[in-house]
Design brief:
By secondary structure, the chain is of the alpha/beta class. The chain has 18 helices and 23 strands. The strands form five sheets. A nine-stranded mixed sheet has the order 13-12-14-15-23-22-21-18-19, with helices on both faces. A seven-stranded parallel sheet has the order 5-2-6-1-7-10-11, sandwiched between helices. α1 packs across α9 and α5 packs across α6.
Length: 546
């Protein structure tokens, strides 16, 4: 069959959840037997989000092939359970860079380079690039931003042309919008949606389906009004009520017949849907009992999207063990060397130190790790979390007072963490870190080996600095085991402390490979250890009251 294309746009306001709608639709279509991929077109001029501050953009999601992408790709992978690639995320910057490179090579044969056709042609070519990896039945493409933004215009023009290029039966447009509720008059208002669709139609795109985000149910009168003014059938107005848990959304949208309407418009058969495993997942979520408190010690804690894959991976571990995960956000700058840390961290069942860049907040992360190590609190370090764990151990166990990372002190006499050899002469920062999937060989009998159930794994990376091999023997003799090694470059990937309930730190990013119904093994076991710690703490408290 010919590949079909679904384009998802957003109106009224940002952060409507277009990415979750795209991911949910992908899951629904996959459940009916179709091969699916999802991509995101972002209108910002950065080449990719790799050099952007997490406080502005949220986390950078990394693909197996080393793409630094928008965080929505994390939602896509978690919902459709497919590993995506760098071709699933394009930005205005990347599009223009490709066009300028083409012009410099003379590919346009002396033509004046213009937005139409050169930019729009490059956008259309980028949409099709996902097919380079494999032929896919359906490509879902989310257009970032909001209709009416000047930055989005070339993308919208490109997808308008797509229907003419590809055939009307192969393309549909879905518009996600918001229906505000006015409490004072007790009514939902459709006017913002009408204006949003009017804006979309003014550039030549008539939505085939409108997904209406709302706090309360839409009545038939409101749907009839939207149908009349937006020139759309009532059955193509899909209600998307707020959900308690984002993994409920595919089931809610299926009740609204979203997948059936999409397949009918694409002239595809709507075979029997198999969402049994997903329904069991949602049932499991509804049946969670008991809370586990996980302290997340970071410096981007004001914006939860900066750690969204970590939070979701913790939740996945919670689902597996039937527990609600309560993230306790601790800004690492609030943790000093005093005993006040006990007041902040006391009552936390497990401590996680995530990734980050730069010196700000590092001492707080190190102090949190010291607290976890000395008080037998389960600890999980990710990327910089490993680097801080090694520095803490070197300082307080090996008694190397000036132990440091050359990232924080380039002149350090004891760079326990040092710049990777291939990174030392790089001048350009964007896209030059150690990125993507790399092999790791585990030590037999280690906690990592127990978790994975095998000795050879592959995980995704995003870093420039590594554990300095000159200090490995010292660390291991003192009790910090190197239990994961990259076999190609002999780089330390995992460290553990044996005489601790659960102390594991990794240089890679396991959160990028966790799925709601298949939690990453390290997150699964970290949550298990944290549950045991919670039980121990409860028993101690009960014993103290007797």
């Amino acid at each position: 069959m010919e590949t079909k294309y679904i384009f998802i746009t957003g109106g009224v306001l940002s952060s409507l959840g277009k990415g979750i709608c795209a991911a949910s639709l992908g899951r629904l279509l996959k459940s009916r037997g179709y091969t699916i991929t999802i991509q995101k077109l972002d209108p910002y001029i950065n080449i990719d989000p790799g050099t952007m501050n997490p406080m502005q953009h949220g986390e950078v999601f990394v693909t197996d092939d080393g793409g630094e992408t928008d965080l929505d790709l994390g939602h896509y992978e978690r919902f459709i359970d497919e590993n995506l690639s760098k071709y699933n995320n394009f930005t205005t910057g990347k599009i223009y860079q490709n066009v300028i490179d083409n012009e410099r090579r003379g590919d346009y044969l002396g033509s004046t380079v213009q937005v139409i056709p050169h930019i729009t042609d490059e956008i259309k070519s980028s949409i099709r690039k996902t097919l380079k990896r494999r032929i896919t039945d359906i490509i879902i493409t989310e257009i970032g931003g909001t209709v009416g933004d000047i930055e989005s215009l070339p993308f919208l023009e490109a997808i308008r042309q797509f229907k003419k290029d590809t055939g009307k039966e192969n393309v549909i447009y879905i518009h996600v919008t918001y229906i505000p509720y006015l409490k004072t008059t007790d009514e939902l208002k459709s006017k913002p949606t009408q204006h949003s669709v009017k804006e979309l139609r003014s550039i030549g795109i008539q939505p085939d389906i409108i997904i209406c985000r709302s706090e309360i149910e839409l009545d038939d009168g409101l749907k009839a009004k939207i149908s009349l003014f937006c020139d759309i059938d009532m059955e193509d107005i899909i209600e998307a009520l707020d959900a308690d848990n984002l993994y409920e959304i595919p089931l809610k949208l299926q009740k609204e017949n979203l997948d059936i309407r999409v397949l009918e418009k694409l002239k595809l058969k709507s075979g029997r849907s198999n969402l049994n495993s997903w329904k069991k997942l949602v049932e499991r979520i509804h049946g969670l009992d008991g809370t586990v408190k996980i302290g997340i010690i970071g410096k981007y804690t004001e914006l939860k999207d900066a750690y969204i894959s970590i939070v979701e991976s913790l939740n996945h571990g919670g689902y597996y063990h039937g527990k609600i995960i309560e993230p306790v956000w601790v800004n690492s700058q609030s943790l000093g060397k005093s005993s006040d840390n006990k007041n902040i961290l006391d009552g936390i069942d497990g401590i996680l130190v995530p990734y980050g860049f730069g010196h700000r907040g590092i001492n707080g992360k190190i102090n949190a790790i010291k607290y976890a190590r000395e008080n037998d609190v389960p600890f999980f370090g990710i990327c910089m979390g490993l680097q801080c764990a090694v520095i803490e151990f070197a300082e307080n166990v090996l008694k190397i007072e000036d132990a440091n990372s050359s990232e924080f002190d380039p002149d350090s006499k004891n760079p326990i963490i040092d710049l990777m050899a291939e990174q030392k002469d790089l001048k350009v920062k964007g896209g030059t870190m150690r990125l993507g999937s790399y092999k790791c060989r585990l030590k037999k009998g280690s906690r990592a080996h127990y978790a994975y159930g095998c000795l050879n794994i592959e995980e995704r990376h995003r870093h420039r600095f590594e554990l300095n091999n000159d200090y490995r023997d010292m660390l291991e003799k003192a009790g910090m085991g190197i239990t994961g090694i990259n076999p190609d470059k002999n780089l330390a990937e995992i460290v553990e402390i044996d005489d601790h309930p659960w102390f594991v730190a990794v240089q890679f990013h396991p959160e990028f490979k966790s799925r709601p119904d298949k939690p990453h093994p390290l997150f699964r076991d970290f949550i298990e250890a944290s549950i045991k710690n919670s039980i121990r703490s409860e028993n101690k408290e009960k014993a103290g009251k007797k």
